Amino acid sequence: MQAIKVHELKIRRHRRIRKKIAGDKSRPRMAVFRSNKHISVQLIDDLTGTTLVAASTYEKGLNLKSTGDITAAQTVGKLIAQRAVEKGITKAVFDRGGNRYHGRVAAVAASARENGLEL
């Protein structure tokens, strides 16, 4: 019997989550992607398949010491919330992307909530 890879298990978890949640223009899906070095967040309208707002540690002007820690995740959460409020979005559905709601993923959500986004 072949062992199931960690990445395959993550994909299965994400598919299971995506069966239950979907975003629209009034309440988009806040999708979080976490890698070892970076974190990125998008607000997605699933009805049209468009990204309404995005923020990431890949952006140049953030001036972060490290891009893979909780403070970077909090910065991205604050940035996505500010950009969403500017576009008139106040509510979103949180999609943890198959990751555990822990550490950097939880920090993004908490920071977004503190800065005006209702999840």
Give the CATH class: Alpha Beta
CA radius of gyration is 14 Å
Helix- and strand-based class?
A: alpha+beta
| Low-confidence region ranges | none
Known CATH architecture: 2-Layer Sandwich
Q: How many discrete structural domains?
A: 1
Number of strands: 4
Assess the beta-strand content as a share of residues.
15-25%
Shape: globular
Distance between the termini: 41 Å
Tell me the major beta sheet: 4 strands, mixed
* Mean pLDDT across residues: 94
Q: Taking strands numbered 1, 2, ... along the chain, how are they ordered across the largest sheet? A: 3-2-1-4
How many helices does DSSP assign?
3
Helix content: 25-40%
Helix-strand pattern: HEEEHEH
Describe the model:
The protein is α+β, with helices and mostly antiparallel strands. The protein has a single domain, classed as 2-Layer Sandwich (Nucleotidyltransferase, domain 5). The chain has helices at residues 6-18, 70-86, 104-114, and strands at residues 29-34, 39-45, 50-56, 93-95. A 4-stranded mixed β-sheet has the order 3-2-1-4. Strand 1 (29-34) and strand 2 form a beta hairpin. Helix 2 (70-86) packs parallel to helix 3 (104-114). It starts with 5 loop residues before the first helix and ends in a 5-residue tail after the last helix.
